[in-house]
């Protein structure tokens, strides 16, 4: 089987290695340590995720002296995961590959040169790393970030992409103070939900735009419960002067766009003079159109955000500190978003939901 030796499976195969006991638990001489067989979602070519992925059994791999063997606990299906499988994402692992880019697991064994992790620790890949859709994975110690075991497993599995994106975008582009306002489309996405809550914690108001669809009233109520000040469907904003709807809110200094097309234009209409719109996605696959007057008379700025650019080695510690902060908020119940835990064996069902085959669905999180 060509995929057997993909280097991201791992735990202990009993009887084939020597052990030494340390104060932190059992450590293994990695030259003799391998991992047991693992279930994994793999793809050998790019294409439609439901056509090119399959769930297979893989043989164990060697756990070298600097490696950590992790038993995966949970991993989400993100849109960027699907884009990688389709072959349209700018950064992709070489083929054949195991899917998944973030998740949480428990350390099962460590190589002899590993210094800061021990069996039983909970870890997440930070920066995110490919190959998370498998029951066991082996990667070097530097890939893993130890987190509190009190963290809810579904939040630990999903914290490194969407919530971190929300936090960085609120901090990296415009200096916002309590009483300021932001506007965003795609507000029901996990990034959108996190932006609402993180802004509210800082006393920042939010104006939120959602699609016209069945269940939009329920979506509005959900976002209001999270702390949204205003929620509008796109059709509600088909008015001559959009800012007449603001009532007691200030004009937003910062806007977020993950949709494109007309929805992006609505974000721009809300922005104050000198405001900034940050684009981090393009779900409609339509371009952003900006009027000449928006640049000349409103002096608007258009920026882009890609989390991958902030995953350089020199920014790892900064990102990990932010992740710890976000997980603390999740443990305290101050950061919430909708997810559905699904057994790894039901991957195909979770994939169908993630592809939109069954209508709007919560974020799918695979539980191992």
From TrEMBL:
CDD domains per record: ETR (cd08290)
EC number: 1.3.1.104
Location in the cell: Mitochondrion
Occurrences of domain Enoyl reductase (ER) (ranges): 47-366
Key words of the record: Fatty acid biosynthesis, Fatty acid metabolism, Lipid biosynthesis, Lipid metabolism, Mitochondrion, NADP, Oxidoreductase, Transit peptide
Group of enzyme by EC: oxidoreductase
Taxonomic superkingdom: Eukaryota
Gene3D superfamilies recorded: Medium-chain alcohol dehydrogenases, catalytic domain (3.90.180.10), NAD(P)-binding Rossmann-like Domain (3.40.50.720)
SMART domains, per the entry: PKS_ER (SM00829)
Chain segments annotated as transmembrane: none
Pfam families assigned to the protein according to its UniProt record, in alphabetical order: ADH_N (PF08240), ADH_zinc_N (PF00107)
Any one of the GO BP annotations: fatty acid biosynthetic process
InterPro entries listed in its UniProt record: ADH-like_C, ADH-like_N, ER, GroES-like_sf, Mito_Enoyl-ACP_Reductase, NAD(P)-bd_dom_sf
Entry similarity comment: Belongs to the zinc-containing alcohol dehydrogenase family. Quinone oxidoreductase subfamily.
Protein name: Enoyl-[acyl-carrier-protein] reductase, mitochondrial
The species this protein was found in: Salix viminalis
């Amino acid at each position: 089987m060509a995929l057997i030796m993909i280097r991201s499976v791992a735990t202990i195969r009993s009887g084939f290695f020597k052990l030494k006991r340390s104060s932190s638990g059992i450590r293994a001489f990695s030259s003799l340590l391998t991992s047991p067989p693992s279930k994994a979602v793999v793809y050998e070519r790019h294409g439609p995720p439901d056509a090119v992925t399959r769930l297979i059994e893989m043989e164990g791999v060697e756990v070298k002296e600097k490696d950590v063997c992790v038993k995966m606990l949970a991993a989400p299906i993100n849109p960027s995961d699907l884009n990688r499988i389709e072959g349209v994402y700018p950064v992709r692992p070489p083929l054949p590959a195991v899917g998944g880019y973030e998740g949480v697991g428990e350390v099962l064994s460590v190589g002899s040169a590993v210094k800061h992790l021990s069996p039983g620790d909970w870890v997440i890949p930070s920066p995110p790393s490919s190959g998370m859709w498998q029951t066991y994975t082996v990667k070097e110690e530097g890939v893993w970030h130890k987190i509190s075991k009190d963290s809810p497993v579904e939040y630990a599995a999903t914290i490194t992409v969407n919530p971190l994106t929300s936090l960085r975008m609120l901090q990296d582009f415009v200096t916002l103070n309590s009483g300021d306002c932001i506007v965003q489309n795609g507000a029901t996405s996990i990034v959108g939900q996190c932006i609402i809550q993180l802004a509210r914690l800082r006393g920042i108001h939010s104006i939120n735009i959602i699609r016209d669809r069945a269940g939009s009233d329920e979506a509005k109520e959900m976002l209001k419960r999270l702390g949204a000040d205003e929620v509008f469907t796109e059709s509600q904003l088909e008015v001559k002067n959009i800012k007449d709807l603001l009532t007691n809110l200030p004009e937003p200094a910062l806007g977020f766009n993950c949709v494109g097309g007309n929805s992006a234009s609505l974000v721009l209409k809300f922005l104050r003079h000198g405001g900034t719109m940050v684009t981090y996605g393009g779900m409609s696959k339509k371009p952003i159109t900006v009027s000449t007057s928006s640049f000349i008379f409103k002096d608007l700025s258009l920026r882009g955000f890609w989390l991958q650019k902030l995953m350089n080695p020199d920014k790892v510690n900064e990102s990990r500190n932010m992740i710890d902060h976000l997980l603390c908020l999740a443990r305290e119940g101050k950061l919430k978003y909708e997810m559905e835990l699904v057994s790894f064996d039901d991957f195909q069902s979770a994939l169908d939901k993630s592809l939109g085959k069954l209508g709007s669905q919560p974020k799918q999180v695979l539980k191992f």
